[in-house]
Amino acid sequence: WALHPCGMVVSPEPLTDLMPVQRSPRSFLVAQYDMDVIEELGFVKIDLLGQAGLSVLRDATAEIRRTEGVDIDLYDDVDFSDSDTWQMIAAGEARGVHHIESPAMTSLIRQCHVRDIDCLTTIVAIIRPGAANQGKKDSFARRYQGFEPPSFVHPALEPTLRATYGLMVFEEHILQVATEFAGMNLGRADVLRRALNKENLAMIRELESEFRQCARDK
Description:
The protein has eleven helices and four strands; from the N terminus they run βββαβαααααααααα. By secondary structure, it is mainly alpha-helical. The strands form two sheets. It has a two-stranded antiparallel ribbon. Strand 2 and strand 3 form a beta hairpin. The longest helix is centred in the first third of the chain and has 17 residues. The radius of gyration is 22 Å and the shape is flat.
């Protein structure tokens, strides 16, 4: 069996009463159904990212407080406009920084000459198989730097996609377009999001007609 490193199954009753489970080497109880079956059975599945780097930051600030008597608030005391920091990031020199140290990330960061947190957040989302394979890396880099104007498939999409220059980058964009543009309800919009993520062509074809009909009726 495969262990999902950050998947949490939520149930109104003990999982031991509803499905086979097995205790992992670290003593966690692990569902023996895969994630697709879990969803089909109606359980709520939440993916939580375990980020060890945050623990390092917590421990480092605690140690500074203990040894130096200085309190550092990582939310209020961090200057997100610090030019030296952005120069280091833009030069692709943020090695050891989770999410922005891979070759693909540093390449796009240098290509965009990133200088703000919104751009960096978008780049992190673009370096995913779905967005990257659709040529969005080059398009975003050109549009972010003003070499290419933003382009919207429909004028009604501009409020949703203005910050990413007309490109659908985040999974939330699928939900927003499906609900705000086409008028689908959130439940069906989320089914569409999952179908697109998993490249479920049969489900995508089924939802395409529903999306079009909802948009016509809106």
